[in-house]
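Structure tokens please, single chain.
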Amino acid sequence: MPAPRAQAAAPRTRVAARPPAGRAPARRPAPTPRSSTPRSSTPRSSTPRTSTPRTSTPRPGTAARPTAARRPPSRTRSSAPRPRPPGAVRPWWWRLAVLAGSTLGIVTVLAALAQPPTEAGQVPGTTDPVGQAQLTATTLADATTRYRSALAEATAFEAQAQQARDAGAAALTAVATDRAAVGRYAAAAYRRSADERWLLGRLSLTSPATTTDVLHAQGLAARLSDEQDAQVARAATAAVHAAGYTDTARAAEAAAAAARRTADDVLVEMRDLVTTLAPSVSAQWAGLGTSPTSTAQQERNAAALTDWQDYLGRLAAGGITPPPAASLIDPTDLPSGLAPVRDASGATVTGVASTFGGGRTLTVLPAETVAAVSAAFSQLGKPYLAGQSGPDGYSCDGLTSTAWTAAGVGLASGLAEQWAAGTPVPVGQLQVGDLVFSTDPRSGLDDVGLYLGGTSVLSASADQWQVAVRTVTDLSTAVRVTVPAAAPADPPVTGPDPATCSAPLPSPGSAAGPVDGAWGGWSNGRVPADQLCSLGGGHRLRCDAAAAYNAMSAAYAATFGSPLCITDSYRSLDAQVDAHHRKPAITAVPGTSNHGWGLAVDLCGGINVFGTAQTAWMQVNAAHYGWVHPDWARAGGQNPEPWHWEYGSLT
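Here you go.
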């Protein structure tokens, strides 16, 4: 180990800390002065050292200074460089660090001030159309949730108000009944004679035989009087309750009105947003859908999406921003540069306009229509799920409700409500975005989708199994929701059965039984590969089942940290034969398994055992994604299989 080096720097005189003004310093033993001789850097011993006094030799002609005194303001320095003690460098580095930290803090504050916080209904600025589209979709999805939450709150308060009104009406009926009884008693008492009013006056010492009758009559009169008093009390109590119910109903009505105002405010936010969207952003928004679909369906979807994006591209090239729907209601008062649209007969089409750009006449749709159609396109491939309005799947009316709500037009779920929300449109005046309904004699309005032009409709129909572009030959039943009806129109047809979104209905009089899983015109186990969608790992399902499975797997991963574990999915006929040969007791007869339709999976990773947390999660959540555990496969069923799950109620 090398010998320690002696410090070359001259020692500094230690200055005593000065006490704050007005405060006496704490008493402590005065330090013994040290010698001014430089110390060596030899390591200290562990033995405590004694503070040796150190002295400072006064300069000639000056008196010795106390240690804590200030140095004179002027001092002649020698020309020789004075060595700097190592400790003297630290304050400068410290100052540099403080300065750097202060500068960073100021820059951070200025940056925060330069970027104001994002308010509700605003999309943070970005110049990238894809980024703007993603932010738009996220913002509007959140607003849709808030809108529906406010509507649900309003509905709950309205139900509470109705219950209070009903209870108040019942209380008032009770008040009227008791008051009528009391009135009859009072009227009868008024008509009584003095002897009838004071029965005890009939007692006579000379007629002791009548005493029993008089006392009996007096008892009956007392009971009648008690009943009258009870009726009076009940009437008073019922009146108090009626008043309380009235107050409750008024409070609930006020809360419901406030919730509906909140919902209306959210719609205003959404309309303000979509009416400022550039067509290029809407085009990117429409292309955000990534759910799997079959090859043939993908081609139809892609062709329709390309047509829509080309239309938006022409608007963008012409510098045309779609105007709000309200500005297109009156064909005689359109925004500058726009002209009315006329059908083949020359009649004016309400709710749209036209302009000239790029060497051709362009139809200008309302901004809300552009947003609704783009929102619907962004859901392509999502599975059909009865009664749901997204985000994991949709029924037919759930898709149209969600798409138009995202456009700032509050469209309720329910085919009858959606029909009543718009103005009926004849076939010759159909425009993109109109709601086209399908009908059935047994259910009336049975399906709905957004018109895309020609005979194409974008819908979440049950017979397509997912959000897809389909062909509709009958376009005679349609409404335009951007042109509110002056009075709700009655549905063109009604029926006793519930709507099915074009799902095949059983034949009248047929016995209830398992639903046939056949689809596409193929036989079980013979479905072409290009009609199925991959789950990865060699597993495939019908495309709507695959989309629902992937959504369910993502939710499962959020809980357990890994996606669903799968061992089997679509099973060809040859694979069914092989499986039945190896496991005849637990496999279906070849050609009858729902695996052969691409609508069943066998799972692992804990779901293959009853009583696990994974199985419990599936039992609670799978139905939300359209997956069910057949009765025969449940614990206590005919053939218990915790691992077997099917898409839809097939058995």
